[in-house]
Amino acid sequence: MQGARAVWVAVGILALAFLVGVLAPAWYFAGRLVDNNTAVRAIGELQQQPSRMQTALNSIQDRLRARGFVRDSIESLKRATQQFDTATSTLKAGGGVSIGGFGSGDDVQKTIDEMNAAWKKYKPALDPVANFTAIPYSDSEREGTQLNMDGRELQRSVTTAASQARVYTPSLEKSLAQIISGLQSSSDSLATALPSVVLIGVGLR
Q1: How far is 105 from 194, CA to CA, in rounded Å?
Q2: Residue 185's closest CA among 108, 127, 114?
Q3: Alpha carbon distances (Å) from 98 to 130, 160, 185
Q4: Measured in Å, how far apart are the chain's first and last C-alpha atoms?
Q5: Per-residue model confidence as pLDDT tens digits over 168-182
């Protein structure tokens, strides 16, 4: 009876050793791989926002010149700005991307920091346009539809923001592409290492 109990204890110990030595590392690597791939998809969507902001700014400029309706373009700018700002804040806090590869983490984090620094400089030029809520035109029988004081202020803000967009849009897009590339490289390293971790663990059992 005691011999049978000892056998079962030994089996339990071996099973626990297997879980710790093989399955735990494998689960860890697999989890980091999933996190990286999820981050790549999320940042891929984020990558579209800088060009959307620039497109919205250009649209607002054109519509102001034509004395057209600007509200929908302003709302588009505001949505893109808010989405990008929320995402970059999450990245800065470390909650939006998991870097699980070998040797690429520092490079990716450095790029994230550079992107956040660029965004911090760019966003103040966007805010006056994205947050504009007034009516930009006044109408008169004599002069027709003209920019009023708020409209002229909006025009100045849009001109400034559009100028900044020409500088920062390529910079932000480049940073996001580099982050995606780093994460994909990290994922490749994890995918390569995972079978080896399992085989080594099995071999040591």
Answers
A1: 18
A2: 108
A3: 31, 36, 13
A4: 27
A5: 999 999 999 888 887
Q: The pTM is what? A: 0.72
- Write the single-letter amino acid at 21: G
pLDDT of residue 101: 42
User: What count of other Cβ atoms lies within 10 Å of the Cβ of residue 169?
Assistant: 19
Other beta carbons within 10 angstroms of residue 193's beta carbon come to 17
How confident is the model over 26-41, as pLDDT tens digits? 555 555 555 556 666 7
How far is Cα 139 from Cα 146, in angstroms, rounded to an integer? Answer: 6
Q: Alpha carbon of 7 to those of 10, 13, 18, 54: distances in Å?
A: 5, 10, 16, 70
Residue 198: CA count within 13 A, CB half-sphere: 11
Structure tokens at 6: 């000892």
Residues 6 or more apart in contact with residue 104 via CB below 8 angstroms: 182, 183, 185, 186, 189
